[in-house]
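Milestone 3.1: sequence recovery, worked example.
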């Protein structure tokens, strides 16, 4: 964890948060993650008049992950409109799990946690493999 610069990651999350499109909830979110090969990817939430179609900040982050070369995530942080650490929603924990490196660390409201701690016994790609 020592090689992860959390303040740089938080800054990227805050920069993303400033770009959020939230005319309905007014609740800005920014997320940022570090990839295994050292890139920082980020995203903001984008709401919709059809409320349920809202894209969480993590959706944009995953999209940017693929747009910039793919790979796996090793560290993640998420902030609200005041720059306070925000816990990713359940759906977004699942999104992050899919693209996580083993032992991925998340900065959470209760300290640093691994992806397995924030989504224990997660359903994932391996569950789709044929079972014997
Ligand atoms: N939101 C995110 O962007 N990510 C999360 O993990 C939690 C919720 C957004 C969706 C919506 O635009 C706003 O926060 C209020 O729910």
């Amino acid at each position: 964890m020592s090689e992860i610069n959390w303040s740089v990651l938080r800054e990227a999350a805050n920069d993303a948060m400033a770009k959020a499109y939230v005319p309905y909830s007014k609740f800005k979110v920014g997320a940022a993650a570090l990839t295994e090969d050292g890139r920082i990817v980020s995203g903001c939430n984008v709401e919709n008049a059809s409320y349920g179609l809202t894209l969480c900040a993590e959706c944009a982050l995953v999209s940017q992950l693929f747009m910039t070369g793919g790979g796996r995530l090793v560290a993640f942080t998420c902030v609200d409109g005041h720059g306070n650490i925000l816990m990713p929603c359940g759906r977004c924990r699942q999104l992050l799990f899919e693209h996580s490196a083993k032992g991925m660390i998340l900065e959470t409201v209760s300290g640093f946690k691994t992806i397995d701690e924030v989504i224990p016994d997660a359903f994932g790609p391996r569950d789709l493999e044929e079972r014997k």
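The chain has one domain: 6-130. The chain has a mean pLDDT of 97.
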